[in-house]
Each structure stands twice: as structure tokens, then as C-alpha cells.
Design brief:
Number of helices: 26
Low-confidence stretches: 1-7, 314-329, 879-885
Strand order of the largest sheet: 26-27-29-30-31-32-33-34
Mean pLDDT: 82
Distance between the termini: 157 Å
Radius of gyration: 41 Å
Strand content: 15-25%
Number of strands: 35
Shape: elongated
């Protein structure tokens, strides 16, 4: 009995011992799983917060760039009085198509004035919510609108707009930048967004603007069943499945976008976050259950216990192999470091406990040799001391994340790295990703945004922040610098006469010459159009004057273009000095621009320093332009008419329409005062259309009165011919007033014919097909050639009055005039002598077989009321010369 008791006790000891072991095992397992689940939850909350903050920072940069564009457009639209052309900027590559960004400016009535999208089939935007908001609520801030379909792009766009104000503060229009959702979508690659995760952009009023999931970026709200309440500058919370359309619980983190009423919101599926853990937990529970059964069986049979133990060991080994394969498949380097401390407990080094092959490769080693090594062996003593400061920060804070450029002394085989360190019980867990390619791509995009495509110079987008930086540095060091604003003289004549392709080649040639003149550290920038900016560092007024003089001297020599043509071009230069002429970038640029316009007013081909009184002169110019614009709107222009007569008989055969400004205060204003302003500002297009319609209306009035149907000529500038849709304007006016095209004649200057473009040739041919005669005005003052006259098949040659004035003065005058008449008659052209003022000139022109004459000897320009009398008189040779006033 006594011998059996120990045997019974020993038999019972096995199941009791197994039971104790099972209880201990389950207690430890459940405790560890609970701790691990808590750690995963906390790490997920930190990751969601970090992602929302990163996205918020990305959005702040992107929206700030958009905001800067609206501010620049608003400033230069106001500064140029509405002459800014987004189309020109688009052609110069300032808004490349790859940027997913479009720019539009509208007037106070919602009509689009200029845009980076084509203005064909233009729609009015006065009904758009952002236009109404700006019109009804004056404020100077950036307005962010809900996504909507674009009228012209037919794409869903997000709009950022600012209000334009007139001088009196009233509403004057809207400047708007529209971007496609992809422009503001998160920059992270798809690997950072789980299948059930999302990243979203919200307005502060709780409305979503866009949502990005693993599959798509969209502006329609399909994630939330009930919108979240976003408060403060940020936060993180667990949202129940009832908040989402798919019923899945998520961790939601939001972060306010710096300086803008927006929130970056990140949602991470808790099911996905805990999926891997729960799978492993299930495996561990299964293992624990099996171990419990195993222990029970061990109590009955030691051999079965041993067998089960071997099986479990084999399965565990398999699980470890599977885990190793999973970690080796990623693109990130992974490390587990053991912290090594000195006797005072301070971390002085780390030992590699584990890593994947990618992690070892970044250090130029293989995994087998890398594990167990001390990290201090891979760095120089000085560099490792700097690194240890970062590692200790991670140990102290529990987490550290950054993206940095590896210095030359680093052994890591990557230029840019993104690293994340998390403190563990033993030391640090680290992931490292090579982001060199992404950084290089970003650098290329930034370079493209800051570089003018045509010339390769930095552009206006680059120069503003550069000048800001330079201004702060110069202010801190107490030094000055110069801003030189360069503008080509009469560049529009090159585009109007030779075409935009030649204009582009000229700009490239100008750029090359400026590169030769302006060396580092000074900077040359293409500011826009035919304007350049030179920033001269550490400059005095004398230095700036010397540089400006060198530039003017260099451009006194002709330029050879890439197509082997040679052109002579000059510059006008305005100079502002920091800090004398301004302590802000806007002031320096504005004052340099004012000085440049003063140089042009003084005769061009020179430079001027800014002076306060120049602003007053510019104000006068602006007032003249405003007065002219108002005069066109009020229809203050009338026509006078100067007859042309047959040289032999004096018969009234045609007339020229000449515009006069009937100012309500100044009285009759000569065209010499307002036509140059109209040409320079582009108002010549509206004024020219008014003149054409007034001429047709007058012809219709004389026709109704039963007067002879004499032809009438109107003057057309090169700008009208190139930009004014002239054929449509004239055809419409003739149709509206019922005028025979044979009664309409068009006078063109020689510069109009210099443009060797198919479009101009076709437009002139259109006029001739209608029966409209084409006249060459002021012949002899320009550069037209016989081949041009022959090719364009002109009808009438009007010889400039300078040649008429030489008749009877010098013998060469008659020789030149006779040559012109012979040439014109050979081309079957009628010859008209302008500026005939004496009877002697008339007799000489009769002897030279000139066809028609025009001038004060025949009749000065007279109002329309005087023309019927001259028509009835028919022959206009006066009995005696007219005395000129």
C-alpha cells in the first residue's frame, strides 16, 4: 500500500504538473497578446497621426504655391491695368500641361479675359459660386471652392480664387487657379495606403474635397456615412463602423493645413491593422491549446509527449522561416539593434540583433556577416558621434522619423534615405527606405517650374523667393544690391512683322548675349515676354551704371539668330537699388519697371535709375490710357475726310477717313497724341473697329442722300491685322450698313507687309476677293521690297509726303519720284502723291505721270458735313493755293 501511494502520487503529479504548466502558459500568452495588441494600437495611432501631418505639410506647400500664383496674377493684373496675358505665359511654358493646373482671369461681369485654356466657345462664369461669393463679400483672402466640372476642360476641378478690386475698392473681377484633384492628392506611393485605408482633404466646415484610396482618387464622397467632426489643429480617434459606408471600423487622424482652412484626414482600417496580429494570435492560441492537450497526453504517456514536442518544434521552425521570407520580400531595410550601455547607463553603441537582406545591402554587407556587428565599426569616430545624438533622441522620445541626404562620409549606398526608429525593450527597431529616385524626380519638377522653357533662364516663379532671400541676407549684412529691369525696344514690331517664331529666336539670341555679359554670382532672369531682370549682388550705384552701360554697348551690335538672319535690337533699362529704392521685393521690381518705362520715354536705348518723380510720370501715362479707354467707351471719336483727286483733271475720285478725338474739355485732339497710346496699350483694336463702322455708316448716309458712291480708305495698323480679326470686322460692317465692298479701301503701312506669314497673306487675299482695294501707305519710310509688293498684289501705292516735299527742291527728288512711279506702274499699281501743298508740286507730278494727288493744296481734312459740297463740285483744283495755318 505504501509502495502504491508514491506510484499514485507520481501518476497524479504528471497531470497536476501539466495543469500548472498549462495555466502558467495561458496566463503568459494572454498577457503578452494583450500587451502586443496595445502596442500595435498605439503604433497605429502614431502612424495615422504622422501620415495626416505629412499630408497636411504637403498640402500646405501645394496650396501655398497655388496661393502665390493667385497673388502674383492679382498683382500684375492690377499693375498692368488688365494687360496681363496668361496665354503668353502659357506659350512661354509657365503653366506646363503636366502641372495639372489652369489659370483664368475674369472681369466684373464674369467674362473670361485671359486663360491658360483656349478661350474658344467662352462661357460666362458669373453664375459660379466662387464668383458670386467674391462679388458679394469683399475680402482679400483665398477662397477655396468645392470641386465642380470645368466648363472648358470638362474635368472635375478644385478652384482657388481671389477677388480683383478696382482703384475705388469696388469689385473688378476674379483671378482663379483651378487644379485637377491629382495635384492635391497625397504624394505617398500606393504601398502606404492599405486596401481599406484612405487619405482625404476636408474643408474646415466638414465638407470633403477629395478622397484617395488604394484604387482611385475622387472628389465624390463615398467613404463616410456621417461626416466626422474635426476640431482644433489635429487629433486622432477610433471611429466605429457606423460612420462609414462599408461598415468597417477605422482609426481617423486629422491635422490642420498650415495657414489655410483645410484638414488632412487619414483613415486606417483597424481590421487591416490587427489582421496580421490576430492571425498570429490565433496560431499561438492553437499552439497553446495543442500544448495543453500535449501536456495532458504527456501525463499518460511520456513517449507521446516527446513525439508531440518534436512536432511542435518542427512547426515552430516552419513559422520562423515563413516570417523570415515575409520580411525579406519588402523594399525597406529592417534592423533590430541592441543598445550597449556604459557603466553609467548611457547608450554608447548598438549591436545588430537581426536584419533583412535589404538592410544589410544598404551597408554594403550580407546578412550573415552583418548580424552581430557593432554599428560604430561602420562609421568614422566623428560621424558616429553625431549619429549617436539622433539615436539617443529616438531612445528618449520612443520614436523618431526623418528624411535626410546622406553626407559624403556615410557608408550607406543611397543619396537620400527615409528612416524611422521605434524604441524597443532591447534598443531600437529601424526601417530605412531609399528615396533617392523620388527626390531626384522632385528636383527635376522643381527645376522645370523655375526655368523658362524658351531661354533656359530662371523665370519669374524662381526670382520672387530668390529676391526675398537675398533681401533678408543683404539687410542683415548691411549691404546693397541692384535690380536691373531690361525690356527690348519695339519687340512687338518683330512679332508683328516677322512672326512669333522669329521673335522666339531673337529672345534666345538676347539670352546668349546676356549670359556673356552677366556672370556669377549675378543672376539673369527672364521675367516674362521680352522683359529680363538682372540681379547684381553687392552693388553700388556706380557698379549698376557700369553694368547697364556694358549691356547697352553690347546690344549696339546686331544679333545673328539661329536661322542666320541678322537683327538689330536695343534695350531700355530701369534700375532700383536696395535699400534706397525699396525694402520689399514688390517695391524693388515695381520701381525698376517704372525706371525702365522712363528710359523708353526718354528715347529708348538708355538706362535710368528710379526716382520718386518717375512714379508721377507713370501716373500721368496711366491717366492718359484711362482717358482714352473711357473715350472709346463714350464714343468721343469722329471722322474727318481728305479728298484724293485725279492728277490731270482734279476730279474728286476718292477720300481718306481720318479719326479725331472730340474731347469734352480739351476740344479736338490730334491723332499724333492718342494713336501711339492706343497702339501701345492695344486699345487700337477697339478704336479701329469703331472707325471702320463709322466709315461704313457715313457711306450709307451719303448713299441715302443720293450722293456719288466714292470709295473711302481707312488706315489699319499691323496690330489690327495680326490680332484684330479684321476680315470678320470689315465683312460684318459692310453687311450691316449695306455697303458695296468696292467703296471700301484699306491703307496698310509697309511694316504690315513685312510679316511673311500665310495668315496675313490669306487675310489680304480675302479682302481682294471681296473687291476691297489694298493701299500701301507712306511708301518709302519702311522696308518693303519689290518682291513683297508683287507677291501681295497691292492695288495703290501712296508715296510719303517726304518725297513730295523734295520735288522742285533738289533734282534728285524728281529722279527718286520718277523711279517710284515707274516701278509702281510696272506692277500695275496706281500711284498717289501725299502731302501736295503747292501748285508747283502739282505741275511736277503731272509731268511725272502720277495718277492721283492728296494734300492741303487740294483740300485739308474736313468734317463729313463739308464732303457733299465737294462731291457736287467734282473738280477740286483751287484757283489759288490754300494758305496753310
Amino acid at each position: 500500500m505504501k509502495k502504491r501511494l508514491p506510484n499514485v502520487l507520481s501518476i497524479l503529479a504528471w497531470p497536476l504538473g501539466c495543469l500548472v504548466l498549462a495555466v502558467i502558459m495561458w496566463s503568459l500568452l494572454l498577457s503578452r497578446l494583450g500587451e502586443r495588441e496595445t502596442e500595435i494600437g498605439k503604433a497605429a495611432l502614431r502612424e495615422a497621426s504622422a501620415q495626416s501631418k505629412s499630408y497636411a505639410e504637403q498640402l500646405a506647400r501645394a496650396v501655398s504655391q497655388i496661393d502665390q500664383i493667385t497673388l502674383h496674377l492679382k498683382y500684375y493684373w492690377t499693375d498692368t491695368k488688365g494687360r496681363l496675358s496668361v496665354e503668353d505665359q502659357q506659350r512661354q511654358g509657365l503653366y506646363p500641361a503636366s502641372a495639372l493646373l489652369y489659370v483664368t482671369i475674369s472681369d466684373r461681369d464674369g467674362n473670361l479675359k485671359t486663360s491658360s485654356l483656349p478661350l474658344k466657345n467662352v462661357a460666362n462664369i458669373s453664375g459660379r459660386d466662387y464668383f458670386i461669393a467674391h462679388k458679394n463679400h469683399p475680402h482679400g483672402g483665398l477662397l477655396i471652392s468645392n470641386p465642380a466640372m470645368g466648363i472648358r476642360s470638362q474635368k472635375t476641378l478644385m478652384r482657388f480664387s481671389r477677388r480683383l478690386d478696382s482703384a475705388d475698392g469696388s469689385f473688378d473681377g476674379v483671378v482663379m487657379v483651378a487644379v485637377e484633384p491629382a495635384f492635391l492628392a497625397p504624394a505617398q506611393d500606393d504601398s502606404t495606403i492599405g486596401r481599406n485605408d484612405f487619405m482625404s482633404l476636408f474643408k474646415q466646415d466638414g465638407l470633403p474635397l477629395l478622397v484617395r484610396t488604394m484604387d482611385v482618387t475622387q472628389t465624390q464622397q463615398t467613404i463616410f456615412r456621417s461626416l466626422p467632426v474635426l476640431t482644433g489643429t489635429g487629433g486622432t480617434a477610433v471611429a466605429s463602423g457606423a460612420s462609414f459606408s462599408d461598415g468597417k471600423e477605422r482609426i481617423v487622424s486629422w491635422h490642420a493645413v498650415r495657414d489655410y482652412p483645410l484638414f488632412a484626414v487619414v483613415g486606417m482600417s483597424t481590421r487591416d491593422i490587427y489582421a496580421s496580429f490576430r492571425e498570429r494570435a490565433a496560431d499561438y492560441k492553437f499552439i497553446a491549446t495543442a500544448c495543453s492537450v500535449f501536456l495532458t497526453i504527456c501525463a499518460l504517456a511520456g513517449m507521446l509527449f516527446s513525439t508531440r514536442l518534436a512536432i511542435r518544434r518542427h512547426e515552430t521552425e516552419k513559422a520562423r522561416e515563413a516570417y523570415g521570407i515575409a520580411t525579406e520580400g519588402g523594399n525597406d531595410g529592417f534592423y533590430m539593434w541592441l543598445a550597449l550601455r556604459n557603466k553609467d547607463g548611457e547608450v554608447v553603441d548598438f549591436q545588430v540583433l537581426d536584419c533583412n537582406e535589404r538592410g544589410a545591402a544598404i551597408f554594403g554587407a550580407d546578412k550573415a556577416n552583418f548580424i552581430g556587428r557593432h554599428m560604430s565599426r561602420f562609421y568614422s569616430q566623428e560621424y558616429f558621434a553625431r549619429l549617436m545624438q539622433t539615436f539617443r533622441t529616438a531612445m528618449e522620445n520612443g520614436e523618431y522619423k526623418d528624411e535626410y541626404r546622406t553626407p559624403p562620409e556615410s557608408p550607406l549606398g543611397a543619396l537620400w534615405l527615409h528612416r524611422r526608429m521605434v524604441r524597443t525593450r532591447f534598443g531600437l527597431a529601424i526601417t530605412v527606405r531609399d528615396v533617392s529616385e523620388t527626390r531626384a524626380h522632385e528636383a527635376i519638377l522643381l527645376e522645370q517650374l523655375d526655368t523658362d522653357e524658351l531661354t533656359g533662364l530662371h523665370n519669374r516663379h524662381w526670382v520672387i523667393p530668390y529676391l526675398n532671400k537675398m533681401l533678408h541676407e543683404a539687410a542683415g549684412e548691411g549691404r546693397s544690391f541692384a535690380v536691373l529691369f531690361l525690356d527690348l525696344d519695339d519687340f512687338k514690331n518683330v512679332n508683328d512683322t516677322l512672326g512669333h517664331s522669329s521673335g522666339d529666336l531673337l529672345l534666345q539670341a538676347v539670352t546668349q548675349r546676356l549670359r556673356e555679359l552677366v556672370a556669377a554670382p549675378h543672376e539673369t532672369v527672364r521675367f516674362g515676354g521680352d522683359s529680363f531682370t538682372v540681379i547684381q549682388q553687392t552693388s553700388s550705384s556706380d557698379d549698376a551704371a557700369q553694368l547697364a552701360e556694358r549691356i547697352l554697348q553690347a546690344f549696339s551690335k546686331p544679333l545673328m539668330l539661329a536661322d542666320q538672319n541678322i537683327l538689330q535690337v536695343s534695350l531700355s533699362i530701369g534700375i532700383s537699388m536696395f535699400p534706397r529704392d525699396g525694402e520689399s521685393v514688390d517695391a524693388l521690381l515695381k520701381h525698376a519697371d517704372i525706371a525702365m518705362h522712363a528710359a523708353k520715354s526718354d528715347g529708348k536705348k538708355r538706362f535710368r535709375f528710379y526716382q520718386p518723380q518717375l512714379s508721377e510720370r507713370l501716373q500721368v501715362k496711366i491717366e492718359n490710357e484711362t482717358a482714352l479707354r473711357l473715350a472709346i467707351e463714350r464714343d468721343e471719336f469722329i471722322l474727318h475726310f481728305q479728298p484724293r483727286v485725279n492728277t490731270m483733271s482734279g476730279e474728286f475720285c476718292s477720300m481718306e477717313a481720318l479719326v479725331r478725338w472730340q474731347h469734352p474739355v480739351r476740344g479736338m485732339v490730334s491723332p499724333l497724341e492718342f494713336i501711339p497710346v492706343a497702339e501701345e496699350t492695344g486699345l487700337i483694336l477697339k478704336l479701329g473697329e469703331q472707325i471702320i463702322r463709322k466709315a461704313c455708316a457715313q457711306l450709307a448716309q451719303w448713299k441715302t442722300a443720293g450722293l456719288p458712291a466714292l470709295p473711302m480708305s481707312v488706315n489699319v495698323s499691323s496690330r489690327q491685322l495680326n490680332q484684330g480679326n479684321l476680315n470678320t470686322i470689315i465683312a460684318t460692317a459692310l453687311r450691316d450698313y449695306g455697303i458695296d465692298p468696292a467703296q471700301m479701301e484699306i491703307e496698310l503701312t509697309e511694316s504690315c507687309m513685312m510679316a511673311d506669314t500665310l495668315e496675313i497673306a490669306e487675310e489680304l487675299a480675302f479682302f481682294q476677293e471681296l473687291g476691297i482695294k489694298l493701299l500701301v501707305d507712306d511708301f518709302g519710310t519702311g522696308y518693303s521690297s519689290l518682291s513683297q509688293l508683287q507677291r501681295l498684289d497691292m492695288d495703290v501705292l501712296k508715296v510719303d509726303k517726304a518725297f513730295t516735299a523734295e520735288l522742285g527742291v533738289r533734282a534728285e527728288g524728281e529722279v527718286f519720284f520718277n523711279a517710284i512711279v515707274s516701278m509702281a506702274h510696272a506692277l500695275r499699281m496706281t500711284v498717289v502723291a501725299e502731302g501736295v501743298e503747292t501748285e508747283a508740286q502739282l505741275h511736277l507730278l503731272q509731268a511725272l505721270c502720277c495718277d492721283e494727288v492728296q494734300g492741303y493744296y487740294i483740300s485739308p481734312p474736313v468734317p463729313a458735313t463739308d464732303i457733299p459740297h465737294l462731291m457736287r463740285r467734282r473738280y477740286l483744283f483751287p484757283a489759288s493755293p490754300v494758305t496753310l495755318a
